[in-house]
Amino acid sequence: MAFLEAKDVVKQYAGHLALDHVSVSVPENTIFGLLGPNGAGKTTLIRIINQITGPDSGSILINNKPLKSSDIARIGYLPEERGLYKKMKVGEQALYLAQLKDLSRRDALKKLKYWFEKFEIQAWWDKKVEELSKGMQQKVQFIVTILHNPQLLIFDEPFSGFDPINASLLKDEILNLKKEGATIIFSTHNMSSVEALCDHITLINNGKAILNGAVHDIRYQYRENLIKLEYSGDTDKLKETINNSYEIIESGPSNGFSSLLVKMDEGNNMNQLLKLVMNDCEIHSCKEVLPGMDDVFIKVVNENK
Amino acid sequence: MNKTILILQREYLTRVRKKSFIIMTILGPLLFAAMFVIPGWIATMEDRDERQIAIIDYTGLYEDRIDDTERLKFEYLPVNKESELRSNFSTSGYYAFLLIEDDLLKRSDAIRLFSDGQITMDVRDHITRNLREFLRNEKLRTYEMEGLHEIIAEVNDVRVNITTLKLGEDGTEKHTSTEIAMIVSILFAFLTYLFVFIYGTQVLRGVMEEKSNRIVEVIISSVKPFQLMLGKIGGIALVALTQFLLWVALTAMILVGVKTLFFSDSPMPSRMDGIEMTGTEYPAGAEMENIEAAFAFDQIMESINTINPVNTLLLFLFYFIGGYLLYAALFAAIGAAIDNETDSQQFMLPITIPIIIALWVAMAGFRNPHSDLVFWFSMIPLTSPIVMMSRVPFDVPGWEIALSMVLLVAGFLFATWFAARIYRTGILMYGKKVDYKELWKWFKYSTK
């Protein structure tokens, strides 16, 4: 069931169509990737979901009901352009931002205490933000975003500015949040994190949603029938056998064996390849190579130019 | 609305806790009081060194015509000493020497005063005063008229002494003082100007800070831009009010303190003129000065009372808040439109100009508070807070004040509405060079 739905959303800025009848459906309790090149309209869509701006036409449904202003409390938003008051103390500031999200002072204090302990940053409470490094500030921002237990979390480029240690901490926390039932929208350029985290994606380009679906399905949809074969045996003979029917893209050592990357025809042809080669060599593994999200992204965007 | 209060609270507390706020709050009244006290204090602190002044008089007419004072001693030297004095002046021990070369009634510039340093005003004034008195009498004597001296003295004694009185509605008379009204008028106009400017700029800085810190989008996802703007403007307004009220209270305390210290009726030792006085044995002269000063002080207080301090203060608060709100909204819009302070210049100008014009017109208002020009500018919301405050001490008709107040309220509502439209688009625009065309686009865009 879709937790959040954007239906036919249009947003026109002066002389520029930011969103052109975009529809997006985010299934409940999944991690949803909102992808697209710079200036595609991702941030505009996110701002509309956060009610920072309104759509010119179209509607946003949350749990099948139109979005209303009190829904702000159900959403946690970590913007791409994020910052904190530099001169304010960390604890005081976190408390203030939590209260703006309708948390009572007492609840906010309790929860902040929990998270500060979890991230081992209690010592920062009375420090001014300007004394913190950028990565430290990001941690504080992350805590503030999720503090009010929102059902919907929106992270816009969450990993930018994080060092690898903090990035993996963040990744774990995002997966944890999903486990606890949250629905997460995740906007990024970082395709490896998409493959690692996302269940579904929508690709937006030039204000249009050009690709929708489960990550796994999409990778299958764009597969190029590449099969990687690991074997030991006579390479030349094997190449000769295969070259009669199929194209060999690559050959080389792999995991201590020899390997070939073979481009097959349409359809499931792993069996055919196996039949063809099984008498010429000893097979150690054989698997279909799916395109990375990176390749899909570039391909789809270029197709839609 | 709750969130607006939360924002307001933060804006207020972070500013009031700043060291600069506390320092300004304490320093303000001290500076203010110092403006009155220090010149007087310096005057009493003048050096009391005795100064020797040599006089070389080629005419011999002016012997003993210049009186010695406590600090100035005049010594007549023979004319042959002139060249010696000129060449060795710095070692001669004289502060200055006066050279008279001709009859001053014939040649008034035949007198010169030399020194190796800057000669103070009081020395020159003292000499001029003494010689003029003598020369006048000499001149009068040349007319050879019987009793001329007495006639002149009598003529000189004719005086016009106008007491300005204000008739109350019940016919009672009160002393008024045009000077006091003017001072109050200048003071309030200037204070309004100062506060609108200082705190308006704080709004601009605050908005810009949020924008350049990139915290604005975090906040905007929890509250409406309008709430954020209102909270900020309101919070800073309270800071301004706090500062102003503290200033009033502290200044009042200092004034009361000064009064009891220096103008007390009880025989309390006064150090005002630097002479040690104990018990009742202080010199008669000092006592006179003291009584005169106390009298003048009371008169000022009475005059201040005639301009109705409570009403004036309430009006000041109204115009100050109204003017601040009007400009603060505009400052907020500018802060939202720009990325850094250097970009602010082109947008600051159209806001600064009305404030400066208002100050000019207010200056005219001190002299002629009921002219057409002053009237109109005290109606226009952009200038009325300053111009009207300059008129208030001079009895402005009630309907004029009421109309001007209504217009000001309408003005700031309009400005807030106008600014909010630019603000909500501007705060989310980064790294874009903005001009007036762009602002107009934002304004129109928001109407959708």
From TrEMBL, chain A:
MF annotations from Gene Ontology: ATP binding; ATP hydrolysis activity
SUPFAM superfamilies cross-referenced by the UniProt entry: P-loop containing nucleoside triphosphate hydrolases
Keywords: ATP-binding, Nodulation, Nucleotide-binding, Transport
Domain ABC transporter: residue ranges: 4-231
Ranges that cross the membrane: none
Family statement drawn from the similarity comment of this UniProt entry: Belongs to the ABC transporter superfamily.
Database matches in PANTHER family: ABC TRANSPORTER ATP-BINDING PROTEIN, ABC TRANSPORTER ATP-BINDING PROTEIN NATA
Name this polypeptide is given: ABC-2 type transport system ATP-binding protein
Classification lineage: Bacteria, Pseudomonadati, Bacteroidota, Bacteroidia, Marinilabiliales
From TrEMBL, chain B:
Entry GO CC: plasma membrane
Organism of this sequence: Alkalitalea saponilacus
Domain ABC-2 type transporter transmembrane residues, every copy: 19-420
Pfam families noted in UniProt: ABC2_membrane_3
Protein name per UniProt: ABC-2 type transport system permease protein
Annotated keywords: Cell membrane, Membrane, Transmembrane, Transmembrane helix
Gene3D superfamilies: Periplasmic binding protein-like II
Transmembrane spans: 21-42, 180-204, 244-262, 313-335, 347-366, 373-389, 401-423
Membrane topology qualifier: Multi-pass membrane protein
Subcellular location: Cell membrane
Annotated GO MF terms: ABC-type transporter activity
